[in-house]
Structure formats: structure tokens, C-alpha cells
């Protein structure tokens, strides 16, 4: 086991920590296959040996049920470790590329190299997954890394600082806890890559700070994820999936959770009734007291959500739920039918257990609504209509799309996960995680044969003719130039 990592909430440790990480990276150890494997195994030990500690921390921060803690966070981190351990040799292998006439005779390859020393700034809603998965990615790619967990989930931040300190190589993997002050101090340092997850206001701060050092960034942001619900569907299955992706994922405090639904006026009441009965089956008659649903992270976010709900404009429009328990920070699954489009709930990212349903005359009118807004992190459609599916995929720009599903597309490592436009830049998951923290270095190999005098002065008409023919792949022209015709 490695020596204990230094963990501090003080900004004063930041420069020395960055310097220490730089020295570890420069020593070359993080680039070796053996070091990467040892760190991935150490991470795997954290998730297996300390599952209980992690579950407790998540429950303390979010009231997260063990089921969700395991399914959405712990098992996902273990799976990312296992996949990296299995695939690492392959990922690290240079990729052969075919070279062209301009460098003939030659060979080429893309050699993945670590960026160097990287910074991961994480958020609070899936505080284990969204912190450790990027760290796993950074380690797999051979970087030294500092993780700054979110201060909004303090128990989880503390448990990660403790466990990473206990299990990981302290010289090359550090956790620096803290809030805005610490993040600001970290951003003053020069990093070789920054990976940030959080809201897009802070995303802009990260991007501006990174620009000072020309540091590349990945921004995993949020937005309002729409769901189109057509009438040509299996309603029971669609509603189960919708509920599970909204309320069954951290009470809607999920970046890819359905933010609002669009359906037709004719189908709306059928959809509301189906949601209502399925919600009762999932969470009982008194959902605010269900332990299966997470609570709101803190009173600031609770107030933010109740403010969305209390807007006068929503009067008479709440068709399901609406109950709020300030003491326990719980809000019942709540559905609002046809809120005004200029209401707060339709203009701000909800990030909580409230679901507006907007009705349209024709389901395709929903496409226009979605495309008139900023590009979301995810967009969804439930339909059996093949043409409607195809048109949705073609017309709607989003970080990712799922058809007849919500949220689970991001659990598949074959699909890169990330935003576009306001919802972010860059992707990760599966092999894309390794690539997110690797520079694909192109390398050209040549020997000392195959000299072509036409590239060197003195320049002559014949040489130019030869080069023009060669560049155009004109064999006859090449022969003519060589023969001096
Ligand atoms: P947050 O408050 O935890 O902030 C995220 C990080 O930014 C924290 O580490 C925090 O310390 C830091 N930070 C906050 N203010 C800062 C400042 N002024 N300067 C520098 N650093 C600062 O999390 P949040 O922003 O409330 O997270 C919710 C948002 O994140 C939502 O918009 C959600 O959609 C998005 N999100 C995106 C993903 C994704 O993978 N794309 C995942 C989860 C959440």
C-alpha cells in the first residue's frame, strides 16, 4: 500500500501539491503499464472493501438508497476499473495508420501519450461516480491527477479523501477538498488537462482560467433534457422507464434526467394517469416519506425547487404531487401540465423531482420546440413510429439520444458520453475515457532510402512538373517528368 496522501482544505497546499504531482509525472512512473494497473487495482479495492462506507456517505449527503448507491455509483466505478484493467494493453498500443504518397516510403502510427498532470473538478449529485470515473480515466492514460470533489456533498468528499489517501500512490494521485476558494487556487496552477463536471456558469469560469495556460478542457455540463412521448407506444413500459430515469435517479438530481415531456393534447391525460398510477406502485401513497427516493441535497437547492413550484404562473397546473417536506428536504414526484413557456420551470434546468408536460397539436411540433432551445445533454423519444424516430435522430442536436429509453445510454461504455454546445464539450466512458486523457501523438517513420531530389533546390520546371504529377497521383505525368518530356 502507498504512503498516505496529503489532504487539505487549505489553499496554501495547492502550489506544493501541484509541484509534487509534476515531479511524480516527470519521474516517468505514471506512464508505465505496471503503475497504471497497480492504481486501478487499488481503486477496485476501495469500491469492494469499502462499499459500506461509501453507501453511508451517499446516504448522509443525499439520502440515497443503497440500491441506487450500488447500481448508479459503486458498481459503475468498479466496472470502469475492470474494463480499464482488461483493455489497458490494447488501449496503450500505438495505432498503425496508412501513410500517403507525400511521405513515401514511410510508415505511421498514433502513439497515445498522457497529457501529464491533470485536474478533475467534480460535482455533488453522483459524487462517487463523477469523481472516480474521471480519475480512473486519468490514471489509465498514465497521468498524475488531483481530484477536487464537491463541497456540496461533504460526507462523500471526506470518504474519498480518506480512502484514496489510504490506497492510492500519494505522490501522483491527490485529493484536495474544499470549495470555491480551493478550486480558484487550483485553477491558478498550470495543468495539462482539466476535467470539470457541474453547471455551465462555473464551466465558463473553468474555461477562462484554462485559457490562461492554453490548457485543454472537458466540460461535462447540464441543461434541459426533453422527452417526446408519442401515442404509438407501449405506455406501461414507457412510463416505467420515464419514472425510473426521473425520480428513480436521485430524485431528478441527474444531469441526463428528463427535464420536461412533450406530448400531444389528445394523449396528455392518458399519459398523466399512467404516470400517476405507476408512481403509486413505485413509491406508495405517501412518496415524500419513501426511503426509495433520494432527498434534495441541501436547503439551498430545496428552496430553489420550491421557488420553481410556487410561481403564481403554475397555479392550478400541478396534476400530480406537489407535497414538500422542508425538514427532511423531500419533494414528492410532481407533474405540472402545460406550464407557461416563460415560467421559471420551463426556462431553468430543473435538476429535481418536478416534471412539466407540454402539450402540442402534432407530435412533430415538439421537434421545433426542442431545436429552438440550447442543445441539451440528452434528448429522448418514445415511439414505435420508424419515421418519427429517424427524423428525431436527424433533427435534434444533443449530447446523446436514447430512443424508447431515458438516461441509461450513459451506462453503455460503447457510447461516448458528453455534451454539445451549452451542455458541454468532450466525451468519456469506455475507451473514450482513456482517449479523453491521452494525446494521440502522430509519428512518421522513414529510413534513408527513397530520396526524391525534386523536393530540394535548385528548383527547376522539371522538378515542379514531377511534383505536380506526383501530388495528383498522375503516373503518366510522373514518367514524363522523369524522362524529361
Ligand atoms: P457544484 O456546486 O458541486 O459545483 C461543481 C464544482 O465546481 C465543485 O467542485 C465546486 O467546488 C466548483 N465551483 C463552484 N463554484 C465555483 C466557482 N465560482 N469557481 C470555481 N469553482 C467553482 O455542482 P453544480 O454546478 O450544482 O452541479 C449541478 C450541475 O452539473 C447541473 O447543471 C448538472 O446538469 C450538471 N451535471 C453535469 C453532469 C455531466 O456529466 N454532464 C453530471 C452531473 C451534473
What does it look like?
Strand 11 (324-325) and strand 12 form a beta hairpin. The protein has 485 residues and is an alpha/beta fold. Helices cover 42% and strands 17% of the residues. Nicotinamide-adenine-dinucleotide (NAD) binds at residues 121-125, 130, 148, 150-152, 179-180, 183-184, 197-199, 202, 205, 220-222, 255, 349, 351, 377, 419, 424.
Summarize the structure.
The protein is of the alpha/beta class.
Chart the SSEs and their pairings.
Elements: H1 14-26, H2 33-49, H3 51-62, H4 66-92, E1 95-97, E2 107-114, E3 117-121, H5 129-140, E4 144-148, H6 154-167, E5 173-175, H7 180-188, E6 193-197, H8 200-212, E7 217-220, E8 225-229, H9 235-246, E9 258-264, H10 268-283, H11 299-310, E10 318-320, E11 324-325, E12 330-331, E13 334-337, H12 344-347, E14 354-360, H13 365-371, E15 378-382, H14 386-395, E16 400-403, E17 424-425, H15 431-436, E18 438-445, H16 461-471, H17 475-483
Bound molecules: nicotinamide-adenine-dinucleotide.
Nicotinamide-adenine-dinucleotide binds at residues 121-125, 130, 148, 150-152, 179-180, 183-184, 197-199, 202, 205, 220-222, 255, 349, 351, 377, 419, 424.
Q: Counting H and I runs of at least 4 residues, what is the number of helices? A: 17
Q: How many structural domains?
A: 3
Helicity range of the residues? 40-55%
Sheet/helix structural class: alpha/beta
Instruction: Pick out the low-confidence regions.
Output: 1-8
Secondary structure: number of strands:
18
- Cα(first) to Cα(last) distance is 74 Å
- Distinct small molecules: nicotinamide-adenine-dinucleotide
How large a portion of the residues is in β-strands, by DSSP E?
15-25%
CATH topology of the largest domain: Aldehyde Dehydrogenase, Chain A, domain 1
Shape field = globular
The largest sheet is: 7 strands, mixed
Any guess at the CATH architecture of the largest domain? 3-Layer(aba) Sandwich
Going by CATH, the homologous superfamily of the largest domain would be: Aldehyde Dehydrogenase, Chain A, domain 1
Strand order of the largest sheet: 10-13-14-9-8-15-16
Radius of gyration: 27 Å
> Average pLDDT, to the nearest integer?
96
CATH C-level category of the largest domain = Alpha Beta
Amino acid at each position: 500500500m502507498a504512503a498516505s496522501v496529503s489532504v487539505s482544505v487549505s489553499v496554501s497546499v495547492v502550489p506544493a501539491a501541484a509541484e509534487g504531482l509534476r515531479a511524480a509525472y516527470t519521474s516517468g512512473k505514471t506512464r508505465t503499464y505496471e503503475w497504471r494497473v497497480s492504481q486501478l487495482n487499488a481503486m477496485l479495492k476501495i469500491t469492494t472493501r469499502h462499499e459500506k462506507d461509501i453507501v453511508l456517505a451517499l446516504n448522509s449527503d443525499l439520502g440515497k438508497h443503497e440500491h441506487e448507491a450500488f447500481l448508479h455509483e459503486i458498481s459503475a466505478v468498479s466496472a470502469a476499473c475492470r474494463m480499464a484493467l482488461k483493455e489497458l494493453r490494447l488501449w496503450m498500443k500505438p495505432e498503425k495508420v496508412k501513410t500517403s504518397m507525400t511521405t513515401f516510403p514511410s510508415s505511421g502510427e498514433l502513439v497515445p501519450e498522457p497529457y501529464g498532470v491533470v485536474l478533475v473538478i467534480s460535482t455533488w449529485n453522483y459524487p462517487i461516480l463523477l469523481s472516480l470515473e474521471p480519475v480512473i480515466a486519468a490514471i489509465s492514460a498514465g497521468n498524475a491527477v488531483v481530484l477536487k470533489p464537491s463541497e456540496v456533498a461533504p460526507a462523500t468528499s471526506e470518504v474519498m479523501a480518506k480512502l484514496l489517501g489510504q490506497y492510492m500512490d500519494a505522490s501522483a494521485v491527490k485529493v484536495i477538498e474544499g470549495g470555491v476558494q480551493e478550486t480558484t487556487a487550483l485553477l491558478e496552477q498550470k495543468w495539462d488537462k482539466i476535467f470539470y463536471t457541474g453547471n455551465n456558469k462555473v464551466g465558463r469560469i473553468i474555461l477562462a482560467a484554462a485559457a490562461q495556460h492554453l490548457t485543454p478542457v472537458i466540460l461535462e455540463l447540464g441543461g434541459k433534457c426533453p422527452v417526446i412521448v408519442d401515442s404509438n407506444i407501449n405506455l406501461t413500459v414507457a412510463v416505467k422507464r420515464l419514472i425510473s430515469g426521473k425520480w428513480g435517479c436521485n430524485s431528478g438530481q441527474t444531469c441526463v434526467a428528463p427535464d420536461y415531456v412533450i406530448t400531444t393534447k389528445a394523449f396528455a391525460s392518458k399519459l398523466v394517469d399512467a404516470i400517476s398510477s405507476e408512481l403509486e406502485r413505485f413509491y406508495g401513497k405517501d412518496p415524500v416519506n419513501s426511503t426509495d427516493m433520494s432527498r434534495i441535497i441541501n436547503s439551498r437547492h430545496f428552496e430553489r425547487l420550491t421557488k420553481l413550484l410556487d410561481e403564481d404562473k403554475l397555479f392550478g397546473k400541478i396534476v400530480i404531487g406537489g407535497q414538500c417536506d422542508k425538514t427532511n428536504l423531500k419533494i414528492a414526484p410532481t407533474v405540472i401540465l402545460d406550464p407557461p413557456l416563460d415560467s421559471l420551470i420551463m426556462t431553468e434546468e430543473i435538476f429535481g423531482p418536478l416534471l412539466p408536460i407540454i402539450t402540442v397539436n402534432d407530435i412533430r411540433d415538439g421537434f421545433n420546440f426542442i431545436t429552438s432551445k440550447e442543445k441539451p445533454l440528452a434528448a429522448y423519444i418514445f415511439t414505435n413510429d420508424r419515421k418519427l424516430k429517424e427524423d428525431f435522430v436527424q433533427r435534434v442536436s444533443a449530447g446523446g439520444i436514447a430512443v424508447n429509453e431515458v438516461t441509461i445510454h450513459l451506462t453503455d461504455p460503447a457510447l461516448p458520453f458528453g455534451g454539445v454546445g451549452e451542455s458541454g464539450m468532450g466525451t468519456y466512458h469506455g475507451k473514450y475515457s482513456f482517449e479523453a486523457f491521452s494525446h494521440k501523438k502522430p509519428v512518421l517513420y522513414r529510413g534513408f532510402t527513397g530520396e526524391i531530389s525534386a523536393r530540394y533546390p535548385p528548383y527547376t520546371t522539371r522538378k515542379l512538373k514531377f511534383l505536380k504529377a506526383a501530388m495528383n497521383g498522375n503516373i503518366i505525368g510522373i514518367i514524363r517528368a522523369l524522362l524529361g518530356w
